């Protein structure tokens, strides 16, 4: 498939219809890069381009951007069909369906996205006389995100009188880089009593050696003590897959849980794992 930049960029809740020609991803339409790429693919007997693809962003809570992107993909397909007889078998509108990380997020049902995307492509294809292609989507976060959460054990606490409080836990940006990398927001609950009344707001701080290692800037929690376990919710996507050995810490284990049964599916990294590739230095 060829990924194109449709000139639509979903930036959280709004769509910017200009500029994305300079995106690092995909071939842009405006400057003709996509056309050039198509010619190269069609001239190459070893390549079979089954369709046209775009991915306009993540955490999208509206239908509009997908409809605009879908329309644009059909437009380009019709143009290529007229110009050189190319008929895509697939139109792929990518992923980006938003999930509820915090109470401020109001995700749409997947059916709403699919319905809008398919209707738009059907209508545009009919308008342009293009054979209806298969419609593909690539949802990532909306499947894996809500399926996972991260357990942290509460450690120390620092109250800066009259100013603020930090509650520290035994993980952080090494297992979830999103808050430090782009201020992603989450909610956490006391694992043993998820519905406990919240009584305080603290900075939930990670253990890594960075001031920016704050997992939740404004965590609303009940009173906690060292040893309590907190569950940070909706961490199933872009958590473990982006985990690192920051400060040379091992990554945590991953456990699948279903119907009262649990199974470790990724082991916790040990010190031996961390030093496995180390070589002794032999000065000449
Ligand atoms: C090409 C492409 N498709 C799909 C996805 C999945 O996006 P999401 O997890 O927001 O649904 C991504 C994420 O970056 C992507 O780059």
The CATH topology of the largest domain is given as: TIM Barrel
Structural class: alpha/beta
**How much strand content do the residues show?**
15-25%
Number of helices: 6
What is the arithmetic mean of pLDDT? Answer: 94
**Order of helices and strands, N to C?**
EEEEHEHEHEHEEHEEEEEEH
Summarize this entry quickly.
By secondary structure, the chain is of the alpha/beta class. The protein is 23% helix and 25% strand. It folds into 2 domains: 2-144, Alanine racemase (TIM Barrel, Alpha-Beta Barrel); 148-250, Lyase, Ornithine Decarboxylase, Chain A, domain 1 (Beta Barrel), CATH 2.40.37.10.
Helices and strands in order:
Elements (H helix, E strand, L loop, with lengths): L1 E4 L3 E3 L2 E3 L10 E2 L4 H11 L7 E3 L10 H21 L5 E3 L17 H19 L5 E3 L4 H4 L5 E11 L3 E6 L8 H5 L5 E3 L9 E6 L8 E8 L7 E4 L21 E5 L2 E6 L4 H4 L10
Parallel strand pairs: 1-4, 1-5, 5-6, 6-7, 9-11
Antiparallel strand pairs: 2-3, 8-9, 8-13, 10-13, 11-12, 14-15
Bound molecules: pyridoxal-5'-phosphate (PLP).
